[in-house]
Amino acid sequence: MATTAISVREYLATSYRPDRDYVDGEVLERNLGEREHGAIQIFLGAWFFNHRDQWKVAPLTETRTQVKPASFRIPDVCLVAADAPFESVLRTPPLLCVEIMSPQDRLNAVRQRLQDFVDMGVHDIWVIDPESRRCYTCVAGKFEDFTGDTLRIAGTEIHVPLALLWAELDR
Question: Which domains are present in the chain?
Fold first, then answer.
């Protein structure tokens, strides 16, 4: 992936199509998904949107998130608390970040992204691999292969039944 070195100020003042991560002075291209990636992203966005009042959350897609003073990541989907401060660039840790793997993604590179979210204070992170139909969770910094049938944030009503997600891919 190509990189470009610029300042934080320049990064924040620049629009990229598609948007890009910024890590320690380097603008990084992100692997873009194919149809499966897009289908999962829209499914999750709609699922969370439809439950936003019940769960008291605001779902967001592809929102710049400042994970460190000179680093910004763009989660595919995230949830912020409905009562969290309004931020154009997220600086308050989201309740949940979701990364949807693209065919070009490698798990080690994805784990670096997850570590940035963990370091920022994100407690719950989900990784969804549409190709293998596997999920991974990272809760309080502990990365695990997920083997259940419903992704959940413990202590909340927030959940996603995987059968519905996979059925969307089969449409």
Answer: 33-170 (3.90.1570.10)
